[in-house]
Specification:
Order of helices and strands: EHHEHHHEHEEHEHHHEHEEH
CATH topology: Alkaline Phosphatase, subunit A
Largest sheet: 9 strands, mixed
Strand order of the largest sheet: 4-5-3-6-1-7-8-2-9
Shape: globular
Number of strands: 9
Strand content: 15-25%
Structural class: alpha/beta
Oligomer: single chain
Distance between the termini: 21 Å
CATH architecture: 3-Layer(aba) Sandwich
Number of helices: 12
Length: 279
């Protein structure tokens, strides 16, 4: 079964709204040229990474899916993007932190068996994961983002995935360490933007719609998890032909999963009750 469209979701972990709009010149240039659009989106509560990951893919709140913190993890028992797209005949790919594999394929994560897999019968058809084991403020344990972008591009080229997600924690880790009003964070965001710039045209030329966004924001003191615009709000950039809301509309993170399914022509399960924001 041919899907309506192909789509890549790029999650840059822990980038507050103001950093997107002032430091990502490449993305903002696409918006300025009219080739992309941008909105503000608000994360669920708690605005903790694992909680947001599960909500991004299921379209339900942490209070429903049961991922209440980074330490409370299990296989999520709700329909999600991987499960619904593969049921519709699509191929999925993930280049992400291992939490995504735990939530949407199997728990717990096996370092040998689950670091890389190709499973035509599974919800994640092609998975490439990293764990950040040993992470602390002095050693971030994050892969190079250009390696992750290249790996996703490989899955597109080699396996013809219909839906792919890339997730990187580099900027979240930098924010925790250096906070946000500093030279280090300015250069980290600019570096990420430059690495992304090399791959965006390739994905678009290959026929993918692309969404670039975050899972949550981060305060000036490098914190997230709680309420407030600094911790919850981030930008969402869309590269594609669909119609969307006016630029000043605040989007809800729970709208993301049903929006992606609608763009791909996949039936939206009853559990995803938020309204899609793209036609």
């Amino acid at each position: 079964m041919a899907l309506k469209s192909k789509l890549l979701l790029i999650i840059l972990d822990g980038v507050p709204y103001r950093n997107w709009r002032r430091l990502f010149g490449n993305l903002e240039g696409w918006v300025q040229s009219g080739a992309a659009r941008v909105w503000k989106m608000r994360a669920v509560l708690p605005s903790t990474s694992a909680c947001c990951y599960a909500s991004i893919h299921t379209g339900v709140s942490p209070q429903q899916h049961g991922i209440h913190s980074n330490e409370v993890r299990h296989k999520v028992d709700f329909p999600d993007l991987f499960s619904e797209i593969t049921k519709a005949g699509g191929k999925t790919g993930a280049v992400t932190h291992s939490y995504w594999s735990e939530f949407f394929n199997r728990y717990p994560f096996d370092l040998v068996e689950d670091m890389e897999y190709d499973e035509p019968g599974g919800p994640i058809t092609h998975g490439r994961f990293h764990t950040m084991t040993g992470y602390n403020l002095k050693n971030q344990m994050t892969p190079s983002d250009v390696d992750l972008f290249a790996t996703l591009t490989m899955l597109c080229k080699r396996h013809g995935i219909d839906y792919g997600i890339l997730h990187t924690c580099t900027l979240d880790s930098m924010g925790h360490r250096f906070h946000h009003e500093c030279e280090e964070m300015d250069h980290a965001c600019a570096g990420m933007d430059a690495m992304l710039a090399a791959f965006l045209p390739r994905w678009l030329e290959a026929g993918y719609e692309v969404i670039v966004t975050a899972d949550h924001g981060q305060s000036d003191r490098g914190h997230h998890g709680g309420a407030g615009e600094d911790q919850q709000d981030f930008a969402l950039y869309y590269f594609g032909k669909a119609k969307g809301p006016k630029p000043d509309v605040l989007l809800d993170q729970l709208q993301l999963a049903p929006t992606i399914l609608k763009r791909m022509g996949v039936a939206i399960p009853d559990t995803m009750t938020a309204k899609p924001f793209l036609s």
